[in-house]
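Q: What would this chain look like folded?
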Amino acid sequence: MREGVSPAGRRLARAEQLEVLDRVAGGETRVAVAQALGTTERTVGRVLARAGGRPSRRSRRRRRSPLRLSLIEREEIRAGIAAGDSFHAIARRLGRAPSTISREVGGVRGRSRYRATRADDRACLRALRPKPAKLVQSQRLRRAVTQMLERRFSPQQISARLKLDYSDDPEMRIAAETIYQSLYVQSRGRFRKDLTRYLRTGRQQRKPRRGPTGQGRIPEMVSISERPAEVGDRAVPGHWEGDLIIGTRNRSFIGTLVERQTRFVILTELGRDATTETVTARIAEQIVRLPEQLRRSLTWDQGREMARHREFTVATGVQVYFCDPHSPWQRGSNENTNGLLRQYFPKGTDLAAHNQAGLDQVAAQLNARPRQTLNWLTPAEKMIELLR
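A: My prediction, written as structure tokens:
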């Protein structure tokens, strides 16, 4: 007796064989399945043997949503096509939209090639999860993503830049979340260790962020509420945000400046000296090198290192405005940049080990990274455009 054939000589249809697998995978016994289909337990066993044994949890066919076409509906579609019915007529019988039938068949051209069981098998395969990772399927895409990660591009920057650089190549498109999934979920061992270190956080697992801490007050400070409206809307260049990043044991420091319109970054060597005399003097040295149209204002937090802001303003012509207490979002560009800089200067390290030449190299690399807020241009490109 051939496999899939009942003792009465009736061959089990493809739909019945699939139903056997579905029922057994759902937990029904062979006896119950045989009774439901009007066949014998032996025939059910042969169907299972032909399919490779009892379906495991990993190989079970997904329970269909009512929104999805069933095998019975696909058989109705096949019969309707064979009878010469239109898609609208088939759709009315099934209570489906005509567009659903057209997509299922593949349009008018697909009518002669449509087979119900083959279409159902394809649909079941497409529904299987997890799907192969996109970075696994495309070596070109994987190589491009890896190279950009090594250049310390974020997944979001990579996704947007690939869309710009390969605008006519769908294979080179990937979502930022897909990259994160590839690194945190699908990757293992050395691959994860090698590539996650290039991410901004350097973590091998996702973790929630901690909240920021507050700062002190400055005498005679000018509040951010007095800052001109042109600063807030970023309509005019030359307005900067500043802060310090701090090394191990709060004993080493780097000054950071970010231009609000272009996100252009300037770093200042401070070594182990964060006194107001040193900070204001070093920051002033950087500011006075800029063209006059790029020296308008500086927004700082309420750290004591800018206590001599009056002297700074006299030396540079740049008015200093101070944020409200516990309001780091008022210097959002600088806060974001300081987070990016932690890829180069991790917390808990000695920042005094970096000289000004090394800081200039880091700033140049950061200014060459594309930004979403600049429509994926780089700060350097925007600054050049501005100066021209």
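The two ends are 85 Å apart (CA to CA).
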